[in-house]
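User: My collaborator sent over this chain with a note saying "see what the structure looks like." That's all I know about it. Can you take a look?
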Amino acid sequence: MDGLEQGQHSLVQRLDGLEQGQCGLAQRLDGLEQGQHDLEQGQRSLEQGQHDLEQGQHRLEQRLDGLEQGQHRLEQGQREMTKDIKYLQKDVSTIKKEVRAIWDDIKRLDDRLSVQEKKAVR
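Assistant: Without extra context I'll predict from the sequence alone. Here is the result:
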């Protein structure tokens, strides 16, 4: 082999090496592109999950607001009921006093009638 053939042979070998390197780079690039695609899908999935969590949190906050309003109304109702019970207790006490007074009047009238009947019999 003369020098020209050796040079040509050397260039062919280098060209083969470059082609193999280019092929390896293309494979690595394909792998990187696939990885980037997978990352983008993961990102979209995470964003959807975050969106779902935010919606869930919003629904929970609405329910909590509803529960707090219900608790507030319940507490107001309990306060009103306590007032009503006090008024009813006063009314019951007043009615008891009035009933006692009526029974006392009835007893006095009964006693007076008994005395009148005894006088009438004599």
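A starting point for your reply to your collaborator: The chain has one helix and no strands.
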